[in-house]
Structure to design on (225 residues):
């Protein structure tokens, strides 16, 4: 059963610390998305990649967030330094993009910055 | 104003009721419309996927799209307690465009 895998599931960290979240997309999918979900804003797109190339990261605070795909089986989202307002659930999703596009989500990383 | 608007609820209904969930949107370029279901502490899972205007039925679920009104709906017949979840609408304009989500409607089906 193919699925998107995210690690860690939960992360509690102190303000100012670096946080790295990892995602293994479904094998064969060429598009990877990073979303952040909060009660207030819902699901917000932070960045997405096509064939490992960043296509749009306009949703991401550039001064502290960075997203990369070092290879086709790994996407990372890094926050440095972390702040309490970054507390949220971060989701990775992957899909095979074209006209008929469906995004498959991982279980998310619940980040708490204290 | 957000591109996609969705009433957050919560919506509480008795078991067996017909549920209607709705979203409105402002971007006329959207052509592909989806409904995701999200259980607590889980990632969203795709429930329904439709292209352009019209209806699509899958079991107890019916998705409706009215592009002229920029309005989409999800109907759940014979609702069950296991339908208690947050339902998110999502849409995109096709090709390689990003998917935009509504904020989700929380549904509770009471036995």
């Amino acid at each position: 059963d193919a699925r998107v895998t995210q690690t860690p599931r939960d992360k509690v960290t102190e303000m100012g610390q670096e946080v790295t979240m990892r995602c293994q997309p479904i094998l064969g999918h060429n598009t990877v998305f990073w979303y952040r979900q909060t009660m207030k804003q819902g699901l917000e797109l932070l960045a997405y990649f096509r064939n490992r190339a960043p296509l749009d990261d306009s949703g991401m605070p550039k001064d502290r967030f960075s997203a990369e795909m070092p290879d086709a089986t790994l996407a990372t989202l890094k926050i440095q330094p972390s702040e309490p307002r970054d507390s949220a659930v971060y989701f990775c999703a992957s899909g095979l993009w074209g006209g008929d596009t469906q995004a498959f989500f991982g279980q998310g990383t619940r980040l708490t910055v204290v | 104003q957000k591109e996609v608007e969705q009433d957050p609820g919560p919506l509480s209904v008795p078991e067996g009721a017909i549920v209607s969930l709705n979203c409105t949107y402002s971007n006329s370029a959207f052509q592909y419309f989806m409904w995701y279901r999200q259980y607590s502490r889980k990632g969203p899972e795709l429930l329904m996927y439709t292209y352009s205007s019209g209806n699509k039925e899958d079991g107890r679920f019916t998705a409706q799209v009215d592009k002229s009104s920029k309005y989409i709906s999800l109907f759940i017949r014979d609702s069950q307690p296991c339908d208690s979840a947050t339902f998110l609408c999502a849409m995109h304009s096709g090709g390689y465009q990003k998917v935009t989500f509504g904020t989700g409607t929380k549904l509770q089906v009471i036995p």
Notes: DSSP finds no helices and eleven strands in chain A. The mean pLDDT of chain A is 92. Residues 3 and 76 of chain A are 17 Å apart (CA to CA). The longest strand of chain A covers residues 42-50.
